[in-house]
Specification:
Layout: E1 2-11, E2 14-24, E3 29-33, H1 40-48, E4 54-62, E5 65-66, H2 72-77, E6 80-83, E7 90-94, H3 95-109, H4 117-130, E8 141-142, H5 148-162, E9 166-170, H6 178-191, E10 197-201, E11 215-220, E12 223-228, H7 230-239, H8 242-249
Parallel strand pairs: 3-10, 3-11, 6-9, 9-10
Antiparallel strand pairs: 1-2, 1-4, 4-5, 7-8, 11-12
């Protein structure tokens, strides 16, 4: 699904990613953890194609296709979804209108007609029920006046509607209480299947109690320095990152 080879990236001439290698297969969930400033959010942004980051070396392939030169919207149309740590408020644009536009733009990019209104409405109802979202929520302006939990739930609703091939959740758990965390995780788990893949970026092992990863990777100083199973996340929770720093030095 995703193959990253020797990826180097910088912002304003400062090197952030210094040789990332990562392969994510369909059906897999990969968690990326690491101390602040290690490059986790930069990696998410570079995969999604944010233009303030410059790829200086290496490649990013989605289903065997090099996407490194594609604009963010082109990557989105090919199935890359990035959930933001701090979702943007868009006054005057309802959740429903936003999602209709996003879906139909992707269909247009694939040479398809707009989704018929009845089909769209049916899908919106199904996904809203799946994620336990109140229908009134869907007529509100996108993220305007939303609580932290509502913003994150809305992101997972967008994920459910868009059905991307690769979903990147960038610290989706930040600022969530345990109930909101469970609802978000439950939504992600219901959307997991053999044809998509998920990358979860998190500081906390608690999210991984609910979204159980196949692999956990530790990012440090722009490189993946250790990979393992979910047990690695427990070790990090218990011991912090110093022991890995010592291993890397050794």
């Amino acid at each position: 699904m995703l193959k990253i080879k020797n990826l180097h990236a910088s912002v304003e001439d400062k090197d952030i990613l210094k040789g990332i290698n990562l392969t994510v297969n369909p059906g897999e969930v990969h968690a990326i953890m690491g101390p602040n400033g290690s490059g986790k959010s930069t990696l998410a942004s570079v995969i999604a194609g944010k233009d303030e980051f410059e790829v200086t070396k290496g490649g990013i392939e989605l289903e065997g296709e090099d996407i490194k030169e594609l604009d963010p919207e082109e990557r989105a149309h090919k199935g890359v979804f990035l959930s933001f740590q701090y979702p943007v408020e868009i006054p005057g644009v309802s959740v429903t209108n936003f999602i209709k536009t996003a879906i139909n733009e992707t269909r247009k990019a694939k040479g398809q007609e707009d989704m018929p209104a009845a089909e769209m409405l049916k899908k919106i109802k199904e996904k809203a029920d799946l994620l336990e979202i109140d229908r009134k929520f869907l007529s509100r302006s996108l993220n305007e006046g939303f609580s932290g939990g509502e913003k994150k739930r809305n992101e997972i609703f967008q994920l459910a509607m868009m059905e991307p091939k690769l979903a990147i959740l960038d610290e989706t758990d930040s600022g969530l209480d345990i109930d909101a965390l469970k609802i978000v995780a439950n939504g992600v788990n219901k959307l997991r299947n053999a044809d998509n893949a998920v990358i979860v970026i998190t500081h906390y092992q608690r999210l991984l109690d609910y979204i159980v990863p196949d692999y956990v990777h530790v990012l440090m100083d722009g490189k993946i320095v250790k990979s393992g199973s979910k047990e690695l996340a427990y070790q990090l929770e218990e011991k912090g990152y110093d022991w890995i720093k010592e291993e890397v030095k050794a």
